Automatic annotation (TrEMBL), chains A, B:
Pfam families: TPP_enzyme_C (PF02775), TPP_enzyme_M (PF00205), TPP_enzyme_N (PF02776)
Taxon lineage: Eukaryota, Fungi, Dikarya, Ascomycota, Saccharomycotina
Keywords, alphabetical: Decarboxylase, Lyase, Magnesium, Metal-binding, Thiamine pyrophosphate
Domain Thiamine pyrophosphate enzyme N-terminal TPP-binding intervals: 16-119
PANTHER family: PYRUVATE DECARBOXYLASE, PYRUVATE DECARBOXYLASE ISOZYME 1-RELATED
Cofactor: thiamine diphosphate; Mg(2+)
Protein name, entry field: LANO_0E11650g1_1
A single cellular component GO annotation: nucleus
InterPro entries: DHS-like_NAD/FAD-binding_dom, PDC/IPDC-like, THDP-binding, Thiamin_PyroP_enz_cen_dom, Thiamin_PyroP_enz_TPP-bd_dom, TPP_enzyme_TPP-bd, TPP_PDC_IPDC, TPP_PYR_PDC_IPDC-like
Organism annotation: Lachancea nothofagi CBS 11611
Cofactor note: Binds 1 Mg(2+) per subunit.
Length: 617, 617
């Protein structure tokens, strides 16, 4: 891409720092920039309009913008967020923290006051009034892989390159502060002819070979193996390599909720979604009794001590994290996912595998057709919607009941999925839907973007729907209206508490209120309504923005949630009794056992209901 | 209030920690708690419903909730915000930072995971996935006067008391983390019979007397004195004392924009709003030539070096900050505003004052009546609205053109004013309006709450209007629709840049979309429309929520802004020339002179347009 970049873009020999940054983003395939204007970033924003095919999205607030940049990144592998000093960056920080927690590549550019004002500690607005200009930068460093402020004239270009490289290769947020007076500093455009070096650095071949040999040795011997695919496969662009692994081994393969979309769920080896103790019986049957588990693209740093109880049973667990790996209890630092996976593929000799494939039960059970006038319930809705998905779809689910419901579905090939299961910031999905919609439009094939969001969650970030309308984006929004925060009702077992309630909105008016003229808004209440909707081929086309309000009972949830939480009161009290018995035991054994017990009532995202029974230690 | 508190409330001898906190808040007059539910705070929220006259507001998102708690505090002197660990608290942090910057008393209660989970570093959702449970607490400490996590069984009650005392007396945010397993720890309710000690500690009478003697000596001699009233007067509840000072001296008195509402603007000594170089000529005439200026309740820590150029001319400037004082260049640490002001009143001998009052020009000039079909412009609207305000009103303005427009008005007595001039977070006013509306309703006299918000700013926080509807609150909302971010258009002098534009909403549908059934929504375009509105006695009554969309030209602004920014291009280039000349001079003199020059084009909130001409130092 790069050697003739200056020529291809007909750039002058000298460009500003602002232009340099934007061209670097463009080289990485970034065509949409998210954020809000502010006096300290406007000189940078002016330059966006001069870059071919680049768009300033102009979000409605900074948190939504951060969610949008995150959603965009989950499709494009990098997102760019621009905010202004103080108020802007702090409003976004929760969204950036989500990108950090969930390993999403993000470059957060913050327009800062001029260096002269900072040195003199002038009182500017958007400061805390104490002359401390570094405070926001300090705050950012806890949720960034790297932070930088461009104030050294000698290293401007190399520092920009470093920031972008880290954000892209580590798949984490990077904070890049630009004092407003630096934006127009002149650089040589020929620097753009040298592509960013995105290769993995500091490799150690000996370590890699030792690790892979050990992994393969365990894999060959295994009688009951399983592969579990997690989020970092998508983040690091390793869907193709993972597919090869699945093709070249006869093992049953599962995805985690955060790994959904990383795997072809139509593949004959696909066994379903692994959700720890909330998995379906067919999934647990395989995973719980595995003697070898290979987790590809593991996201969670304590994957094997918290939510995923398979670690207690599997003899051999291999975890390929984004930048390190674990085999049983041995840690291999600095072993990158991409390297490990490719070397496994290179060294894999399928003929040595002892395991002989067993039949995998089908994930989705056919459901009886209900009478048309039956009111909708979550279990049925999620069982039906799975048939409506199409290859290429981008499916986004909100933290809440939707995140559980989606695990019931078996995706067509090449379906992408976005959810924020670990960080779990309510309202995230609406911003992410905007970002994913921009990314989808850039793809040319214009895939459908389908959002499932609860009525409670929608209220946190609703105004971002307006940005979708502004840009003529065409997501299909399923508004799962169950009258408040149903997930919390279930979590806290206090379904009638006032704080679970929300103001009732006239949701079908949202699109026209935000200025939509070409749209589809409708409400479905019954089985008949819903079937008519998903059987209508016109509805399935993403030719305009659509919102379907799905009316659901307040105390209803997907079966995984219902079964675990509402029907286990008896089991819970039994477990509590056993926890009490454990108090007499020695501390280590106690903790280990209690974790095991608690796993029985903990979901993948560790909706920990057991704190009532935990005392301070 | 307190000695029989347990008896009065018929409390049992033992109560939970959660109840203890809420009763302490109630003792401080706090009856509304803002925030969102989350699993780690729900056990605390349950208890709100058991406290007499206490309400859980249930906001639509955490940033809005922080703004609301801030707005409530500006009326009640303390606000309470409850969020959940990680996602909740980080979403709120920009609002909390605003309270910190602007000296607003706030207690931010964060529901945290159980201590046992933290010690074991379990992976919980809403963590960064790295087992670091302290990260959010660390982040909070930069924008809090004090931070605490309740994990010591021995000091629970005293720590709660300490947090509340600091938040109330320092008028700053305090962060109070409560591990969810601590909420039900039992305390003796009799502790509530001992009132919080809100008295000022560590006084030094010698310092106080020395300072006040020096102040009075300068005051007595002054030929051209002035009093300027700033924000901390309201924050620290010193409106009555300030009134006495104004009564007992013949000096002309002014307020800053952030001090508006701290002073009776109908008083014959009132000279107008002091906005630095953007003040009206009548104000500058007095302040610029003063030989003694007493600033009561000064908020800005570098008040005299940045925006307020009077410091360069006045021989004697006295600044009474919230917790220290300055006389010329002498700093008196730990001298609290309340102490200093009361001692000045105690020692003041009015007969020694040399100054003889001069006539003060009237602030508001009568305007000609325009033809009814003339389209509205900001200058005219602000000149008219001033006559529509009433004693007791709470007037809230957004950062943007409204914050400038309001300075044109002369308030009736006892008008309160809320704006966020220093921190300047766009969208703040909508959340603040919710908080102020709750506070107003608690007052019994049910004063009007009047919000001025731009169409751009409204989009950031619009969903909080739904919370107003939910609770039957009745603010009167003037939606100043000038088609985008007008203040930014003016700031950046790039009026046609795309990033100033916003999606056009059908604003009159907002109230019904959010579920309002009893409301008034209308649009005004012309002088005739607007006069009919403000002359209609029915419209003036706050009997339901009202939204008036005021259509204004995109490039229009209140005169102070227009004159300074649009009409001073010539002056700007002259100043730039002089700045360039200064480069040759020595550094200190250069900086001093440049600050002076820059003051000519800087508003009170330091909308610093001069960074184009500043290079790095």
């Amino acid at each position: 891409m790069a050697i003739n970049y200056v020529y291809q873009c007909a750039l002058p020999p000298e460009i500003t720092l602002g232009h340099y940054i934007l061209h670097r983003l463009r080289q990485l395939g970034i065509h949409t920039i998210f954020g809000l204007p502010g006096e300290f970033n406007m000189p940078l924003l002016d330059k966006i309009y001069t870059i071919p095919q680049m768009v300033w999205a102009g979000n409605t607030n900074e948190l939504n913008a951060a969610y949008a940049a995150d959603g965009y990144s989950r499709i494009k592998r990098l997102g760019c967020l621009v905010t202004t000093f103080g108020v802007g960056e702090l409003s976004a920080i929760n969204g950036v923290a989500g990108s950090f927690a969930e390993h999403v590549g993000l470059i957060h550019i913050v327009g800062m006051p001029p260096i002269s004002a900072q040195v003199r500690q002038l009182l500017l607005h958007h400061t805390l009034g104490n002359g401390d200009f570094k405070v926001f930068y300090r705050l950012a460093s806890d949720v960034a892989a790297y932070t930088s402020i461009l104030n050294d004239m000698e290293t401007l270009a190399s520092e920009v390159d470093k920031c972008l490289t880290i954000a892209f290769t580590k798949q984490r947020p990077v904070y890049l502060g630009i004092p407003v007076n630096m934006v127009d500093v002149i650089l040589s455009s020929s620097l753009l002819n040298f592509p960013l070096n995105l290769d993995i650095q500091n490799r150690n071949v000996e370590v890699e070979e030792e690790f892979v040999a050990a992994v393969l040795s365990a894999m060959y011997k295994s009688q009951n193996p399983a592969i579990i695919v997690d989020a970092c496969v998508t983040r690091h662009g390793l869907i193709e390599e993972t597919k090869q692994l699945v093709e070249r081994t006869p093992f049953p393969v599962f995805c985690t909720p955060m790994g959904k979309g990383a795997l072809d769920e139509q593949h004959p080896h696909f066994g379903g979604t692994f959700v720890g103790s909330m998995s379906s019986p067919q999934v647990r049957e395989v995973v719980d009794f595995s003697d070898f588990i290979l987790v590809v693209g593991a996201l969670l740093s304590d994957f094997n001590t918290s939510s995923f109880h398979f670690a207690y049973r599997a003899k051999n667990t291999v975890l390929l994290f984004s930048n390190h790996a674990k085999l049983k209890n041995a840690v291999y630092p600095d072993l990158e996912l991409k390297v490990a996976l490719n070397l496994i593929l290179a060294r894999l000799d399928s003929s040595k595998i002892r395991y002989r494939p067993q039949k995998i039960s089908d994930v989705i059970k056919p459901k009886l057709r209900l009478m048309n006038n039956v009111p909708l319930r979550q279990e049925w809705v999620w069982s039906q919607i799975t048939n409506w998905f199409r290859a290429g779809d981008i499916v986004i689910t909100e933290t809440g009941t939707s995140a559980f419901g989606i695990n019931q579905s078996k995706f067509p090939s090449r379906t992408r999925c976005i959810s924020q299961a670990l960080w779990g910031s309510v309202g995230y999905s609406v911003g992410a839907c905007l970002g994913a919609s921009f990314a989808a439009r850039e793809e040319g094939s214009d895939p459908r973007v389908i959002l499932f969001v609860g009525d409670g969650a929608l209220q946190l970030t609703v105004q971002e729907v307006s940005t979708m309308i502004r840009w003529g984006l065409k997501p299909i929004i399923f508004l799962m209206n169950n009258n408040g925060y149903t997930i919390d009702r279930l979590l806290h077992k206090k379904s009638n508490a006032g704080y679970h309630d929300i103001q009732s909105w006239d949701n079908l008016r949202i699109l026209p209120t935000f200025g939509a003229s070409h749209y589809d808004a409708r409400k479905v209440k019954t089985v008949g309504d819903f079937l008519a909707l998903i059987e209508d081929p016109k509805f399935a086309i993403n030719d305009k923005i659509k919102m379907v309000e799905v009316l659901l009972p307040p105390m209803d949830a997907p079966p995984a949630l219902m079964e675990k939480w509402l029907l286990t009161d008896k089991a819970d009290s039994e477990i509590d009794g056993r926890v009490d018995d454990l108090h007499a035991e020695d501390n280590d054994a106690f903790i280990t056992k209690r974790i095991k017990l608690n796993d029985n009532r903990r979901s993948i995202v560790d909706y920990n209901m057991s704190y009532d029974n935990m005392d301070s230690v």
